[in-house]
Amino acid sequence: MKEMSEENKPKRKITILDSQECPPCEEIKEANKAKIESGEIRVLDVTSDEALELLEKVGAPDKIRYPAALVEDDNGVKLCDIYHDKEVTLVACGNQIIAIREPKEEPPTSQPPQESPPSPTS
User: Fold this and answer.
1) In a domain, 122, yes or no
2) What is the pTM for the complete model shown?
3) What Å distances lie between residue 57 and 10, 76, 84, 114, CA to CA?
4) Is 106 within a domain?
């Protein structure tokens, strides 16, 4: 199986669907603020013309479970669920999981290495 380099990865657009009916959406937007501000992730009000057009394209039901996202890639547009907690934000599209925010790597909490005693000189 061929692995894709970063340059050859398909371009993917992630759009968080925002709504007043989505209390966790504010938390998700705050946690992903840097990626939203950089344009890596978009936020659309679910009632906006663009969101409605995309939802129609995916054949979404009239009622959407929040929090939700639209993922657009080489295979088209999919309506996906968002799973979020204080450490991660994941978008689940069927059997595909996309991490949009992963836990920060923390430095090891082990004790600093102790200096070894000087080696005896002959």
Assistant:
1) no
2) 0.74
3) 20, 9, 26, 61
4) no
